[in-house]
Amino acid sequence: MASMRIENGDHLEHRATDVQGNGGPWSIILAGGEGERIRPFVFRWLKRHKPKQYCAFVGTRSMLQHTLARADRISIPERQVTVIRRTHVSDARPQFIGRSFETVILQPENRDTGAGIFLPLTYVRARDPHATVVIHPSDHFIYPEKSFVEVLKIVARAAEYYPDRLVLIGALPDSPEPDYGWIIPGDSFGWVSGRIIRNVRSFVEKPSTDQARNALECGGVWNTMIFAAKAETLWNLGLRCFPHMMLLFERLGSAIGTSRENDVLDAIYQTMPVHNFSRGLIARVVEQVALIELDGVFWSDWGRPERIGETLRRMKKTPAFPWACLLQSDGAPATDQ
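^ that's the sequence the OP posted. Answer follows.
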């Protein structure tokens, strides 16, 4: 499997790795986004663009480093795959100092979350077709992490018990947030490690304010896009929802480990379609989605600068940036309406 190994931050080395024995679930860490909505804020702070997953908004660890640390607690290093955009190598390099076994996939272009998930899954499947995978977005604030990791372990276990299901984490809401996708839970159908597993009635993507309010009143939860599934189940759902894209990744899968691998990767991204995983797949296969609710944990998707500020104030955290950087372009304080 082609990989980028980063040793002590000094150089990048391509090498082949192999996994022996059962090391538990695989972790796929998604770190290929650009963070466009917070680009002006980051530019005011750092005087340059830097994708948010590589930023340390509080403390000294970046969002990606927090995500990798969570992945460490459920997956051995050889079973972690991180996908970044090829143009992010200079920002990604410092994130992996001291981490010897992570496999970093260099995505030629950002083609939204469909390709972002199925590219690393192609590599996982080539090594372990029977894998259970846990998907970790790298731009979320989660506290306390210890409690969250326990839920992650249960979600991975649930994917083993119910191999035909994609097991999704839903965060308990405290407001009718229209920026988030919403999940309307269905009836319960089982228990795993003391947690209720529910069916899903429906998804509400890109809701209006009224739709978000209705979702809250109906007992809806926020869609975190953190989930676990068997690799083959996820692959088959991809074939069902994104057939053209999956043919491209099957072509890549047949080239992994050969001298053609990098050329094929570049070639398939010349025609790679843009698909959103949540809207294009999860919302279309409701009958194969299971839900575990996240309670006792604060979760926030840091997609807007005002949400970063709101979270840090709520948690009484001192930011690594000047508060003035949260000002909007007109000089008014950013607010979370």
